[in-house]
Amino acid sequence: MGGIVAIVGRPNVGKSTLFNRLIGERRAIVEDVPGVTRDRLYGEAEWFSRRFWVVDTGGLDLEAQEEIPAAIRRQVLAAVDEADLVLFVVSAQEGITPADESIAQLLRKSGKPVLLVVNKVDAPVHELYVPEFYRLGLSDPIAVSAAHGKGIAELVEAVLARLPQEDEGEVVGDDAIRVAIVGRPNVGKSSLVNAILGEERVVVTDVPGTTRDAVDIPFRTPEAEFVLVDTAGLRRPGRVGRGTEYYSTLRTLRALERAHVAVLVLDATEGIVEQDRRIAGYAWERGRAVVVAFNKWDAVERDPQLSVRYEREVRRDLYFLANPPVLYISALTGRKVSRLLEEVRAAAERFRFRIDPEELDAIFRDAVLLTPPPSVGGKRPRLYRMRQVLTGPPKFVVEVDDPSLVTSGYLGYLENRLREVHPLPGVPIRIEAERYV
Ligand code: GDP
Ligand code: GDP
């Protein structure tokens, strides 16, 4: 599902205004990067029931080459590298500048699909300036006014037409379990990919058609079929270089888009840090089942207290993961790597959990009887029934006379009651209130 759209252009053309238009009310992910003009922003856009990621690259100011740290230029190029589509933003009110020309040249060389977005077309008079942008030798210019919201729907249509459709790139049958190996740099993700593929019982299967940027690796064990998704850059342990550290978050988000199960790799020599929590949060928000793997177990002293401590830390720092399976592995020695695959398979099964409607009804009635919903502003909602509407991950709706009266705390209570019977460790459960009709 989805795809990644990078917004590129010189400063002040309106990139961040356009970014905000595209993601609307949704929350942006901000990440501090040393030496960058502004925080990098990632955001999820949803239009016409399709979702895609948008990255605001900050600025690419080729006019002031001396002052621009090479790192920033590299970052923008790395974003272009990662993107499925680039929105190159220019300004109708300022016309083509030398910086625009250099960026256009860079983008033409990159071979990426580019949409030329002429911004600041606020009034009909500005439309006169649009045709001059054909000179940049890119696609037909699309006129918008990010500030006034003009032309945005047309732009979005052009974007969606160029993004991969959902599920494209799948190379094995529907039953294959799609696995994303995620974690911050240096925890051993590449080493783990290699360890998995080197496992005796693993058979790497033929790849009928690898997708353009995404490198998916299908393989089989006697128990199940898997696909490691988006392993680009994950096959050479210890590599350093352009883009790898800059866009690791983007790479994570992209991999999560296409996975069923995320293996969150942590470094057992360092424990859980803030960045680990953040990555765990992305996986959870994206609705993926999570298996936690403390890697480099060979390197820590065989301190029996350590696994106890880590288990406690997972419950505390990663509490939202609903008691995920925790493994202590070594990509280096192969310790517990086949066990990890077994846990991934089990997690995928839970991810596709379906409850019997009668059982759900019984759990629901008991729960409501035991603790009725609290009244809000003197009014108490009437709950009618609960249904499972989706799986992978499981989603439920509670039918109620007035959904606005149902608190998130009460939905959390219903989730807890459900988990008492079906714990579904490491699997996100969604419950929403819906108007009974
Ligand atoms: P960025 O540096 O490319 O991210 O540009 P910003 O989004 O920060 O916008 C730079 C300036 O252009 C701000 O003052 C915006 O209010 C203004 N701006 C953005 N979009 C438009 C537009 O569609 N029309 C006009 N007139 N101004 C705009
Ligand atoms: P990535 O950035 O997450 O892909 O991490 P790499 O796979 O490149 O590994 C980072 C470093 O950790 C390399 O020097 C690896 O050799 C080392 N490493 C990876 N897995 C293990 C492990 O299980 N044990 C030990 N001792 N070192 C490991």
From TrEMBL:
Residue sites binding GTP 1 per the record: 9-16, 56-60, 119-122
UniProt key word GTP-binding: yes
Binding site for GTP 2: 183-190, 230-234, 295-298
InterPro entries linked: AAA+_ATPase, G_ENGA, GTP-bd, GTPase_Der, KH_dom-like, KH_dom-like_a/b, P-loop_NTPase, Small_GTP-bd
Domain EngA-type G: 3-167, 177-352
Short name of any one Pfam family annotated for the protein: KH_dom-like
One GO BP: ribosome biogenesis
Keyword terms, alphabetized: GTP-binding, Nucleotide-binding, Repeat, Ribosome biogenesis
UniProt xrefs under PROSITE patterns: G_ENGA (PS51712)
Keyword GTP-binding attached: yes
One term of GO molecular function: GTP binding
HAMAP family: GTPase_Der
Family to which the UniProt record says this protein belongs: Belongs to the TRAFAC class TrmE-Era-EngA-EngB-Septin-like GTPase superfamily. EngA (Der) GTPase family.
Assembly with partners or alone: Associates with the 50S ribosomal subunit.
Function according to Swiss-Prot or TrEMBL: GTPase that plays an essential role in the late steps of ribosome biogenesis.
Name of the featured protein: GTPase Der
Top-level taxonomy: Bacteria, Bacillati, Bacillota, Bacilli, Bacillales
Gene that encodes the chain: der
